[in-house]
Each structure stands twice: as C-alpha cells, then as structure tokens.
Write a structure and sequence with these properties.
Elements (H helix, E strand, L loop, with lengths): L2 H12 L4 E2 H8 L3 H14 L5 E6 L2 E6 L4 H8 L10
Antiparallel strand pairs: 1-3, 2-3
Helix pairs in contact: 1-3, 2-3
C-alpha cells in the first residue's frame, strides 16, 4: 500500500464525517489524480474486509459493509436494562 493510500485510510478512519476530495488533497499534499489513484488502491485493499470506501459525489468516507451491519448494531446497541425499582 502506498504512503498516500495508507494516510487516506488513517484520515478517513479517524474522521467523524465524510471528507471532500479537496480536503484529502490538502491533508496529503497530493493532487487530485494522486488522491483518486490512492483511493482506488485503498478500495482494492479493503476488498473482503469489514469496511469499504464510500463515495457520494465529492465526499468520501469509510463505512461498514452492508452484510456486517446487523452484527455492528448488536454490538453497539445500548444495553437493555431491567425495570427500575420504586
């Protein structure tokens, strides 16, 4: 995995929101073509893994693969507690 691709993975993993392509260019000091290429590389390296690169127009983020969504929901749901005493 290239340095830029690894940096994009770390940035997208750490972000709590989708990031614009321009933000990724600025963060990695890479031109648009370089970021696009690194995103393709990251996308390929995540094949068969639990997360994937999602893109909507100019915004990119990491997301859970749909087939693992139920397991993630079960793991992260709030604990259900019994009734409270009076």
């Amino acid at each position: 995995m290239s340095e830029v691709s690894a940096a994009l993975e770390a940035i997208l993993f750490s972000s709590n929101r989708p990031l614009k392509l321009r933000e990724l260019q600025h963060a990695t000091d890479t031109d648009r073509i370089g970021v696009e290429s690194a995103l393709d590389e990251l996308r390929q390296s995540l094949e068969g893994r639990g997360v994937m690169v999602m893109r909507h127009h100019d915004e990119i983020h990491l997301a859970t693969r749909p087939q693992y969504a139920a397991a993630v929901r079960r793991a992260l749901r709030p604990e259900v507690s019994g009734r409270l005493s009076a």
